[in-house]
Amino acid sequence: MKESNTPRCPICKRPVDFAQSPYRPFCSKRCKMIDLGSWFKEDYRIMGEDLDSEVVYNPASNQDREG
Ligand SMILES: [Zn+2]
Hints:
With about 70 residues, the protein is mainly α. It has a domain at about 5-45: Erythroid Transcription Factor GATA-1, subunit A (Erythroid Transcription Factor GATA-1, Chain A), CATH 3.30.50.10. It contains 2 helices and no strands. The protein has helices at about 30-35, 40-45. The N and C termini lie far apart (about 90 Å). Bound molecules: zinc ion. Zinc ion (ZN) binds near residues 26, 27, 28 and 31.
């Protein structure tokens, strides 16, 4: 079995062309950022932040009725 010497991205395990990729040893900027652990932390912080702060105002329930 012949073994290829192609370097692989440590994140997604795809072959990386070191001559072409500016993000080596990663295949892309995305994989580089994943390795740094920064982009998805930012993503998760933005998601789901405003869900609990929504207050439903219901004026009908505060009505004074005489009768
Ligand atoms: Zn990759």
